[in-house]
Input
Amino acid sequence: MLIIMRSGPTEAQCVRVEEAVQAMGYSPVRVPGADGRMAICVTGNRGAVDDSLLSRLPGVLRCIRVTRPYKLVSREVHPEDTVVEIAGVPVGGEEPVVFAGPGSVETEARTLAVARAAASAGARVFRARLWSESLRPYEFGGVGEEGLHTLARVREETGLPVVTEIVDPRSAGQVAEIVDGVQIAARHMENEALLEVAAGLDCPVIVQRGPWATIREWLMAAESLLARRKRDVILCERGVRTGLERRTLLDLHSVAVVRQTSHLPVVVDPSRAVADRGRIRPLSRAALAAGAAGLMIEVHNRPDTAYTDPGQTVDIPTLEGIFRDLEVASAYERLDA
Amino acid sequence: MLIIMRSGPTEAQCVRVEEAVQAMGYSPVRVPGADGRMAICVTGNRGAVDDSLLSRLPGVLRCIRVTRPYKLVSREVHPEDTVVEIAGVPVGGEEPVVFAGPGSVETEARTLAVARAAASAGARVFRARLWSESLRPYEFGGVGEEGLHTLARVREETGLPVVTEIVDPRSAGQVAEIVDGVQIAARHMENEALLEVAAGLDCPVIVQRGPWATIREWLMAAESLLARRKRDVILCERGVRTGLERRTLLDLHSVAVVRQTSHLPVVVDPSRAVADRGRIRPLSRAALAAGAAGLMIEVHNRPDTAYTDPGQTVDIPTLEGIFRDLEVASAYERLDA
Amino acid sequence: MLIIMRSGPTEAQCVRVEEAVQAMGYSPVRVPGADGRMAICVTGNRGAVDDSLLSRLPGVLRCIRVTRPYKLVSREVHPEDTVVEIAGVPVGGEEPVVFAGPGSVETEARTLAVARAAASAGARVFRARLWSESLRPYEFGGVGEEGLHTLARVREETGLPVVTEIVDPRSAGQVAEIVDGVQIAARHMENEALLEVAAGLDCPVIVQRGPWATIREWLMAAESLLARRKRDVILCERGVRTGLERRTLLDLHSVAVVRQTSHLPVVVDPSRAVADRGRIRPLSRAALAAGAAGLMIEVHNRPDTAYTDPGQTVDIPTLEGIFRDLEVASAYERLDA
Amino acid sequence: MLIIMRSGPTEAQCVRVEEAVQAMGYSPVRVPGADGRMAICVTGNRGAVDDSLLSRLPGVLRCIRVTRPYKLVSREVHPEDTVVEIAGVPVGGEEPVVFAGPGSVETEARTLAVARAAASAGARVFRARLWSESLRPYEFGGVGEEGLHTLARVREETGLPVVTEIVDPRSAGQVAEIVDGVQIAARHMENEALLEVAAGLDCPVIVQRGPWATIREWLMAAESLLARRKRDVILCERGVRTGLERRTLLDLHSVAVVRQTSHLPVVVDPSRAVADRGRIRPLSRAALAAGAAGLMIEVHNRPDTAYTDPGQTVDIPTLEGIFRDLEVASAYERLDA
Output
């Protein structure tokens, strides 16, 4: 149930609605709109909510039934696109944003070399992992928290905002003090302890889709952030498991579905699904054509020496090619306008 | 093993190589190239072929080991793109081709109305099914062979080549006498009796990927046609089953993989995977951006009345929009050139 | 809708009900029960059927709404277990039946050697393929129709009924003249031409589950046989594709679901899913424990020399072990009784 | 590489081997065997290890190459079955162990009522969750840490060891102080922070297979515990995602594979995969027949009132039936002995 308030409701009117919702055993969440508009979303109900009382409260314009299990991420509740700013870079606005960086933070010197090259090529946000992307007890597991200093140096040198993954509720706060945005890794999409901590961080949170997750489950992970009053949430498609190939399969249909059903921006990370450096660019084109708000590209000035996943890491000229592709993709925006 | 002949080999040289291959217990298949070039592919071997004799035969330039289980469909054996002509319409050439039509052939009057509208919008090939796409014993199963007359009338009226699915080795020949191209439905991708008959037809064959098939198995289905001397084969991606959603998932990665590994043109049919009319266009854009040689679009002048799958059938204005998108996509070709 | 007739209805009463159903635009199918009982199933309706007229016709006891998309295979329509006889061997009765034989018919001498050994071990039905199980244009594709003579010799020598796969509507009739039962291969589960021919054959039909098929789609394939008045149908689970391993995954849950929802017997073929000879026996035990009416076991007196899939072919002592396991499994039957 | 020491090696010999391994850049892990035998496993190598030096060190009997990516969980390294004791109850020994309890800890009175009934029926271990099994921001999320007191009361009253899931590295230690075993929930199978904490706990750890995980990835999760010197690890199969049904599919093949390749005990939790109370028992039979060392059964004295997943929760008479089935299953053990 979404309770739409008349234009410019008073605080007292809003509080009275909230109290009425609580008295019914549900939880109210305010959803501010453009131009001072306000709605109050009823959460926590299992079946339909009786609106006979609510719709007669002062300041209430009307009540709208929300038909999906997720509410706050839904376009039904928030029809306009949400634009999330990562240290001033808008994600979900008119221009697609490219996040670029090596798969993992490497030594400071090597990481800075990649960052400079990526910035020159046109990257708007730097992204690199501190912890390995999967469970391999006997392999390089990432530099860990020690790499935070390197990320700070990257921002200092290049001016790019920096983003990294969080994997542990115990260290997430420390990470968020340094970086401009955090990412919930795909394998942690249903890690409720990590999501709870992420909801309290003072920076945007990117929620990767789990390789086994339905679109609905993915949106529910984002919903669990919004239900805790987090606003600046980005979704990231990165491929799902199928029975057909060893690697995940990039689901671009999900981009179209999310754009229909949610107001949150959705970006695409083709690296892991595509696996082969030579196929990152065609799939990046496809992601933008499907409506993605941005791309995450693993790039290296010397890809073959990358500490993690060299096979899926593109070189700088390929990244430059992707930036030329962005201009082609923008023609679709003009057709749609 | 691929045996590359010196430029302009004599027939006697080719025959001698073929005899040598047969003497080794394998089957030779000629693979003509551009400018009178000729190669002879060794098929039927399980392990490596000993080339010590073959490479010393007159007219042989060199022998190349083929590393994949499929051979004749592979770019290793045939590096240039294959262009397949459907009654004069080139598929796999510079311009993407849109196949359009209702999901199923309907009455003659209704089918002609769709065909005229699709032709005006810019469709290059008309496609519609005579038999239902899946097994539903109690539902409309398609008009069957009786619809062949309707397909002939569509060509007569609109000038468009017509394509339909074959589903039965007993009727495939009769179908092929009327239409300009046939399609092996996804659920028949491993129907060897149907493939055997298709290999003998005098028109192009489009091989849909089975919703359960790996890319390799799909290429093996095409290989089984080429191994029977069929040349004009087109591949069609239409989505695979995953554990995540009820509908299939459109695999655009497969388009990039096929373009790397095979010389055959690959087109994309988004209808069944996308399911929702409102998402056909973004996924069509994505398919073209990923490198598809064409699209198959279920279209109707009155989509809600379509005999089959109205939900995934677009209207004429959407089809017109897709044609505007083709021009954007062509910018990628120019970037790649 | 299922129309239950009063005990011992007259032919005229049945005909009058059938005519009434036809007048409503649907198709009636008679479903004879035990003890002279008779029901008439309404098929071809999409939504609910109005029973106000039907329930008042002479001889009609009551009308029952059928809640599933499949009707004739459903326990709602036919509550008792169906027992299918293969040349006198009952499948779906009290004792599980083991179908055994090499993956493919080999030479007559070799095939007879396997058959004799399997019969001595306790096999009740001999099964072997004439055509290869998957599309491999350059590998052994099976002996084809020429092997029918070998199958006839196996029956003559061992007294076992023989079963084989059909793969082509053009040759299915010829096959059925020789064998005692035919099997629709998994990859042909939705091959409507083959199912149509199979429905007309004068022997039991075993419908393998497609490796991509939901339980519902599998039951719909069987339904398409029953809708054509075929009665002696057996279901065969043999594993489904998942994203996790290269081989299919044996779905024993499906056995429990089919036993709940359908009256048809269901057998399990673990070979292809299990792949490894050493795991056939534990999975066979599990299949019986889950309630399977029988097993299909690829066996060979010299497994390593089997023409197809030696890795999944057990030896005779393992087959003997499986027969000892049958006695353990029968204890479950006694617990359930 | 596994370095097998001669019978009764001295500590000095072992240390010298460990130092040699470290000098090569790898990590040694001691693997004690029965009868004072000792092996030292080389971990952290990517390719083959040169054993020319190692095999000549004093006390070394021979060096064995380990062919799998996981080492310490492998039968190659530890051929005998591992038996894990949960407060004296052996898992992986001769008799299968049934873990039973409601899906979630409920009020103390209700939970005790279930525990008493389960204990009377024959359950050997009590298991119930403190946190909900999946991410549903607006539904009952479990009683949380407050339920630990209830679990302690269950043990006090019934004498059964108690097991629960851990979901957060911050609270795992507190949980482990109360319970007799902890379980890594399926969705946390690759949660490295949680696994790291679990490795340090002073009680057995049960590793559920992620619904998207290959058998190899599952074994790697267990390996990451053994690599941290954890010994008492149990594996739990609970179903994987496929593209075919909404629920997961119980993979009993994995039980046979794990028993071949690993020495760790593997138990089966059919609840979530089977979903329907009426199918828990046949699938439990199948799990035991496939070789499972135990079962996890969601049970309730009033199943329809269970706080979580009543549909998959069996009643006490069904649990009693499962105990009768255990005796049938034990006949297989005798056949195998």
The CA atoms of residues 75 and 260 of chain B lie 7 Å apart. Chain B has a mean pLDDT of 92. Chain B touches chain A through 42 residues (CB under 8 Å). The first strand of chain B starts at residue 2 and ends at 5.
